[in-house]
Write a structure and sequence with these properties.
heterodimer, A: about 120 residues, alpha+beta, 3-stranded antiparallel sheet, 3 strands, about 55% helix, about 15% strand, B: about 725 residues, Aldehyde Ferredoxin Oxidoreductase,  A, domain 1, 3 domains, 6-stranded mixed sheet, globular, Ald_Fedxn_OxRdtase_dom2 (chain B), oxidoreductase (chain B)
Chain lengths: ~120, ~725
């Protein structure tokens, strides 16, 4: 991964580039959630003990490919999407994939600060 | 009429015009049950000019804070709720008599002080607060409290009423002719700066975070120069049949108590569910669960960090999206460094801030991303088209939250546009299109979507249209959580769709027969049906009595389906643990479950008579344009399943996504509903025969006098 590519996939997006997703939380229900970077998505997709992320995987794949500009990551998400597992398991499978990509990018951008990751 | 047990026997009427008070005998109001029933009847009796008051900030507005026979008792999930009724502030197309509700210990302390409700009329000449110590009622100067936040105000009043530390934990209060003692602090309901500045976004706060806000209750207090109401009491509630009450408690435990070792449910809280704070994220540090008076569950929290106490549900997330975007932006390092706790703390900080300033967070949550976008587009900021000096580049920080909330609470800077509500403010700014096209999700009456889209969750939208506000009734919403979470988790549905529909329908007496399962069929071919009108009728009438008047908690009642019991049948209507069992044990009456619903019908019809006098017409009951013009899109949700049949009549959980309402269809459904209620289908107004049939001839006479009586169906 080149520094330019690492900067590209970790950049903060403009408003036109956001990923629209949602969070499910009882009893509040569904609330919209606009995601402006891969890092923000990484936090979002983890959910919490009392909330769930909610995202359309086809749209996610498209966003990673066309907006973030990371076809490799988009392909990995496409693989996850085709697996015969439930939505929550798909989210769980997504976390380490995105995390590994972020770590890789960060190690390129800030090789001196590995232990901070 | 024999004095009923459970009631304190007195209603406190405060006349702020003359700074006097007098006592209304509760006996005159028994038939209205408590809570909302009391509020509606008191509004009807005490309002000088229902027809001409168009804004809740008018001094002629009547605001009532009412408990019920259950308040101050240990009826499960019913002892601590409190109902607020008043003319609204900030609703569109017009204000109307409305309601809100909060938990905690206010209604129970009011009862222990010997009062069933407090109703306030007029406007004080200077800021005051009401200080009630058992029978002793004082209207006191609040100039030293004006400008203080809600937490500080409560502490000052509590210290003044009784400093428990100096008396070994006990304080004494006059109790009639004798002297009572208590270890409790005074229970205070107060406004913050938002209410003082009469913002439509101002709410009432009790404790750290129990709030009543929909309808601008805070602005009503502020317009009356009323800072707070405080009660302390040393009495108790007289229960008609304590043994029956305790037996029902034990039965409830036997039937429904969750096994704490097995329970890991991520579902909607149900009767008997485990205690758990309803806060969005990972809790920041040590915390313990707290609850309203007498509740068998606990859904709030006290935090060791010292703030964010009782910041629950939506208040805990209103600022989260902004916090996340600000902190992460493009910064990979932060998201990998386990900063969830930090995010949660910032969200709790923002929730606490809103509670201190007395701001209703539901409406402002949708505003934040809109402001973010307007700023990014260069249309909002210093010297821009929408002028504002707030530091939008720091939106997501505590610093921005401080300045934004101050602006909203004081009606300054960007807050000046939203003093009358979010939608009126957006309209004033020339961006009505963003409401019409669904960029902003405010689907009805200028109120924010609750999280459940009316194109999918039909009853939520319909019941809201037929009442005064976002209905906020989770009675059927259990389905959304249980079914959709099962789908997302990839596990079997806990109950087949048709059986689930049957379980719900069998609780919907007297409006839906036990075999009319189609009342739970949310298929598009059934969405404007007559039977769905009767289903919503049940929701409205059940809610008006058992939840809004008897004050059973919305998070637990109705309990239609309960997975803690083998046959999945919930407590609602059950002759051992149902609503009427509690009512009869506490009051000594002998009513049935359906009798309570019938009382709700009467209360609801008095509401509608008030709305008619206030100018409400069938044409008011409409969704925002985007509900009709745009499909509920697939782009953010994986699923929105609900029981429904296909063309062949086969039941399953079917996808509600991708559909929209039609204007003609909603109008057809409204006509079904008006007929079911016996209202004039052209206007939505009640008819004489209907009102007289419910012993409300005086109401019919007044409507006729005002030209607002509905025509009888020919």
């Amino acid at each position: 991964m080149t520094p330019e590519f690492a900067r590209k996939i970790t950049r903060k997006l403009t408003l036109d580039e956001e990923l629209t997703a949602a969070i499910l939380r009882r009893p509040r229900g569904i609330f919209s959630c606009n995601i402006f970077s891969l890092a923000e998505f990484h936090y979002f997709i983890q959910g919490t003990r009392q909330s769930l992320p909610s995202v359309n995987f086809s749209l996610l794949e498209q966003w990673l490919s066309e907006t973030i500009g990371d076809q490799f990551l988009a392909d990995q998400i496409a693989d996850i999407e085709t697996q015969d597992v439930c939505f929550i398991d798909k989210c769980k499978l997504t976390i380490p994939v995105v995390e590994a990509r972020l770590r890789e990018a960060y190690s390129v951008l800030h090789p001196e600060n590995q232990d901070l990751i | 009429m024999t004095k009923l047990k459970g009631f304190a026997g007195k209603i406190l009427h405060i006349d702020l015009n003359n700074l006097t008070h007098h006592v209304l005998p509760t006996q005159d109001y028994y038939e209205w049950g408590g809570g909302h029933g009391f509020g509606a009847k008191l509004f009807w009796d005490l309002s000088e000019d229902i027809e001409v008051v168009t804004d809740g900030r008018d001094p002629r507005n009547v605001i009532t804070i009412a408990g019920s026979p259950f308040s101050g008792t240990n009826v499960p999930s019913a002892g601590g709720r409190c109902e607020v009724t008043n003319m609204s502030v900030g609703l569109i197309p017009r204000n109307r008599f409305t309601r809100s509700n909060f938990g905690g210990h206010f209604s129970s302390m009011m009862k222990h002080a010997g009062w069933d409700a407090v109703t306030v009329t007029g406007k004080a000449p200077y800021p005051v607060y009401i200080d009630v110590r058992n029978d002793h009622v004082m209207i006191r100067d609040a100039s030293h409290l004006w400008g203080k936040d809600t937490h500080e105000t409560q502490q000052i009043i509590q210290e003044d009423v009784a400093s428990v530390e100096v008396a070994s934990g006990w304080n004494g209060q006059l109790d009639g002719n004798s002297f009572g003692r208590t270890t409790q602090k005074a229970s205070v309901l107060t406004i913050g700066p938002a209410g003082e500045n009469q913002s439509a976004l101002g709410c009432l706060i009790h404790g750290a975070g129990n709030a009543a806000g929909q309808g601008g209750n805070g602005a009503v207090f502020g317009s009356k120069n009323l800072k707070a109401i405080s009660f302390i009491g040393t009495g108790a509630v007289d229960i008609a049949d304590p043994e029956a009450l305790i037996k029902a408690r034990f039965k409830t435990r036997d039937f429904y108590a969750a096994d704490i070792d097995k329970s890991a449910e991520f579902a909607f809280p149900s009767l008997g569910g485990k205690p758990e704070a309803i806060t969005f994220s990972t809790m920041p540090t040590g915390h313990r669960v707290s609850s309203c008076h007498g509740c068998v569950n606990g859904c709030k929290q006290r935090n060791a960090i010292g703030y964010g106490n009782e910041v629950t549900c939506q208040t805990s997330v209103w600022y989260l999206g902004a916090v996340r975007s600000y902190k992460f932006g493009g910064n990979a390092k932060l998201s990998l460094a386990k900063t969830g706790v930090e995010l949660t703390e910032d969200s709790l900080y923002a929730g606490d801030l809103a509670n201190k300033l007395g701001i209703n967070t539901y409406p402002i949550m949708g505003l934040i991303p809109w402001l973010q976008k307007m700023h990014a587009k260069g249309e909002l900021g210093s010297g821009k088209e929408i002028h504002s000096e707030l530091p939008y580049e720091r939106l997501g920080t505590r610093e921005f939250a401080d300045q934004f909330c101050q602006a909203i609470a004081t009606g300054t800077d960007i807050g000046a546009y939203f003093i009358n509500g979010i939608v009126p403010g957006i309209q004033q700014l020339g961006h009505s299109a963003d409401v019409d096209n669904g960029t902003l999700h405010y689907p009805y009456y200028g109120m924010p979507e609750h999280g459940y889209d009316p194109r999918a969750e039909l009853e939520w939208g319909y019941a809201t249209l037929m009442t005064d506000r976002d209905m906020n009734d989770h009675g059927l919403n259990w389905i959304y959580w249980t079914v959709n979470l099962a789908k997302l988790e990839g596990i079997d549905f806990p109950i087949p769709a048709e059986v689930l529909a049957s379980r719900f329908v069998e609780k919907m007496a007297p409006y839906v027969q036990a075999d009319e399962v189609s009342a739970m069929d949310y298929a598009s071919h059934n969405m404007y049906s007559e039977v769905l009108a009767r289903q919503v009728q049940w929701i409205n009438h059940y809610g008006r009595f058992w939840k809004n008047s008897a004050l059973m908690c919305d998070f637990r009642w109705p309990d239609c389906v309960n997975t803690h019991r083998e046959d999945l049948r919930g407590a609602t209507g059950n002759d051992e643990v149902g609503e009427h069992v509690w009512w009869n044990a506490v009051t000594g009456e002998g009513i049935s479950y359906v009798d309570g619903i019938e009382r709700g019908r009467r209360i609801f019809n008095l509401d509608n008579a008030i709305w008619a006098l206030q100018g409400r017409h069938r044409d008011d009951a409409k969704f925002a344009d985007y509900i009709y013009d745009h499909k509920m899109t697939h782009n953010k949700l994986p699923t929105y399943l609900w029981p429904a049949t296909n063309g062949a009549g086969q039941w399953d959980y079917r996808e509600m996504m991708g559909r929209q309402h039609s204007r003609e269809g909603v109008e057809e459904w409204k006509s079904h509903y008006y007929r079911a209620e016996g209202w004039d289908t052209a206007t939505g107004w009640p008819t004489r025969s209907l009102l007289e049939g419910m012993n409300m001839k005086d109401v019919a006479d007044r409507l006729e006098q005002a030209g607002k009586l509905g025509n009888e169906e020919v």
